[in-house]
TrEMBL record, chain A:
Recorded superkingdom: Bacteria
GO BP, sorted A to Z: transmembrane transport
Protein name: Peptide/nickel transport system permease protein
PANTHER family documented for this protein: OLIGOPEPTIDE TRANSPORT SYSTEM PERMEASE PROTEIN
Lineage start: Bacteria, Bacillati, Actinomycetota, Actinomycetes, Pseudonocardiales
Annotated organism of origin: Lentzea albidocapillata subsp. violacea
Record-stated family: Belongs to the binding-protein-dependent transport system permease family.
Record-level GO cellular component terms: plasma membrane
Subcellular location: Cell membrane
TrEMBL record, chain B:
Molecular-function GO terms, alphabetical: peptide transmembrane transporter activity
Gene3D superfamilies: Dipeptide-binding Protein, Domain 3, Periplasmic binding protein-like II
Signal sequence annotation: 1-24
Domain Solute-binding protein family: 72-437
Membrane-spanning ranges: 553-574
Protein family (similarity comment): Belongs to the bacterial solute-binding protein 5 family.
Annotated protein name in UniProt: Peptide/nickel transport system substrate-binding protein
Family matches, as InterPro entries: Peptide/Ni-bd, SBP_5, SBP_5_dom
Gene Ontology CC entries for this record: ATP-binding cassette (ABC) transporter complex; cell envelope; periplasmic space
Organism expressing this protein natively: Lentzea albidocapillata subsp. violacea
Subcellular localization, as worded in the UniProt entry: Cell envelope
Amino acid sequence: MRLAGRFGGAALSLLMVAVLGFFLFRVVPGDPVVSMTRGRPTTAAMQAELRAQFGLDRPLHEQFWSYFTSLLHGDLGTSFTFRRPVSEVIGERLGPTLLLVGTATLIAVLLGLWLGVRAAWRRDSVFDRVTTGVSLTLWAVPTFWLGMLLMMVTGDLFPSRGMRDTDTAPDFVSQALDVGHHLVLPSVTLVAVVCAEYALVMRSSLLEEMHAPYLTTARAKGLRDDLVRRRHAVPNAVLPAITLVFLRFGLVVAGAITTETVFSWPGLGLLFYDALTGPDYFLLQGLLVVTAGAVVVMNLLADLLHGVLDPRVKVV
Amino acid sequence: MRVKLCALLAIATTVGLSAPPASAQQPVVLKVAIVQQIDSMNPFLAVFQSSTEIGRLMYDYLTAYAAADQSVTEGLANRWEPSADRLTWTFTIPEGKKWSDGVPITARDVAFTYNLMLTDEVARTANGSFVANFAQVSAPDDRTVVIRTKTPQVTMLALDVPIVPEHVWSKVGSIKDFANDRMPVVGSGPFVLSEHVPGQFIKLKANKTYWRGAPKYDELHFVYFQNSDAAVQALGKGEIDLVNRMAPAQFDSLAGKAGVTRNKAMGRRFTELLINPGAQTRTGEPIGDGSPVLRDVRVRRALAQAIDLDALVARVNLGYAEKGAGLVPPVFGKYHWQPSEAQARAFDPPAANAALDAAGYPRKADGTRFPLRLIGRAGRAYDEQASEYLKRSMSDIGVPLDVRLVSDNQLNESTTAATYDLAFSGWSTNIDPDFVLGLHTCAQRPGADGKGGTTDTYFCDETYDRLYAQQLSEFDEDRRVEIVKQMQARFYDQVPAVVLAYENALEGYRSDHFARFTTQPAQGGVIMAQNGMWGYYGAEPAQRTARAGGTGWAGFALGGAAVAVLVAAFVVLARRRAATAGERE
């Protein structure tokens, strides 16, 4: 029953996002037709024709109704900017974003949790101080600046834009290596920022467990330090970090905007940036539904996973 | 066992990552950075400057502008003749020109294109204004196109409309849904579109059968940069060969860089300061909330006189601009206008102060006369710096400025709704001045509901409008030039806007890869964003050594080494842990 409630809640959240998305972006100043035709010989009649083409000349409630009914049929409308169905435009950008965000999240989670555990276990050691200091610094650094800096200091070693070179051989191995080569700087940038957060949360959550009586018991059994940490302390301390990982993963899909902009990575973040300059209503609405959907789904997953990881939290 | 596996994995990964991308016989490629998205490859829908620029490479127009002096020259048509009443134009399409698939180009393709635009509303999306005055287009035979216009039209040799092949486009069902991405895309220009990955790159191949002769290299790649700083860095590293639209500081950063040549060209753009002259709709209803004092032309002149344009160019444009005057930039020399000694408004704050006193706006007790608002775009370096400068200039004549820097969309909205006193704006102009002049006529103002306006300045002046109509039907070029200059003089005198500067177009290219580019015009002209395709078409490869291919190797070697070190560390740790566990348990 509670499980059904969770799913119901998630569905309701998505519905609200869809409704909110429509009105939210209509408040963004600017007239899409004016910005679309700016700087070109355009007559008022042509502008009116464009408005009619996109349905912008109809009353707001009619526009909303047509948006909403199409959405229920899975149709996100047509992008003004790209003149193609929104779902198609988003679809081709989803892969690159998932690749970048997925790689970065995986590295950041492993590295962040490992650093956090080590730092907490040897609290006040040199390792702890360095890790915490560096984490705090990286967390505070603007992503844009870090990206540009990395690009400058690495010189010729890594490409400065995009996901692929235009003249790479078409076979799979060459293409995959090329993508890997392009992936290095953006994912390092993203890891540097995200990983710090995981390390800090993991550290503080493990510190809370450090003086728990069950650890003393475990040590008294004669277990070596390593096993006490791995089998007893970490499993109890990892829960807040797992929640964070899932929440962040949902957010990161949209949050890669700055990284993607710096490195011209052809993902959703970059698409969001481009859509805002229109403003390209349908594309923005679609992006909001997809990215908010990611957050909602990840939330739900974190909820369900909690029950698996921690028997005290019963889902059903 | 585990250790061995790890070691094997380490070796495999290192070898794998260190292998450079395989390379076949390298074609000569020109790589160009574009910083604007591509909206569509369908020439009837594409409105972004980046898209139309690539469209010019794929499709020829009926006529073209020469590279050397921008005069009208052969496009698809090599001869043209207006009738005595100037209502009928006959264009001749010579034999021998072919589409990239080998089918001959005929007058029927031209008639098909224009008629498609006349009959299909969607096909008018991008270039509808060029055919708005067309009554009928026909092709009596394969070589002759006849266009009848409703009224005499002086811009008949400036029809920026890509002509498409009838044998391809007649099969297109809905123009709106046609992405024009069946590669290779059949065209008539010097390059053929061969691949487009949205948001990443566009590849074109040289059209070996192009009627002017094949380009001197094999492929032209446009790679997309969201971030212009990254584009400038990529040029420095040799990843790309050509960049434009650089900011002065970026341009300066490339000075003395080995293998890079900079091109400081005359630009097509001007920057202006709009002064709300008392905005009204077409029906004469006041619109917006502009300060009433600005309706007085004496006030507008005084404000203009208090601005030191030379200082703005030197300090804000860092010298990469020319001082503004008329609406047509000097790059279009024929129509460019400069005020005579008598007409010119020299920078003179005391005279501006005296003029405001005389006009009945004395200083109040606190030393001010009346406040004004200035809006500009946040994040645009010019607006940020020039607004500070203007604040000081205006305060010298007792006009406190309230500066507000807003988003691009908000700025557009304010200028469209006339809710401004002063605002930064700017336009890119064309060889034919009709468009930029037309922006300031009464008819461009919005209708009674405040919508449908395309005016730039809310200017509405009887003299200016009369001259505008005259130049539109003046077929004697010298006389038209004279009228166009009179219009600019009138605009300058009535000051609905102050043209602040004609910005230079700042470009850079890898001269170790490409030795020469054709600029338009020949003297001080641009390579990119031309009224034509000469810059890309005329590029000549340098006698080069291999493209800097070492970068890939170095990166891969470094990546491989890093992975090897990590794996080795892991192996050592694992062994140590196994050992201690054994000892302690």
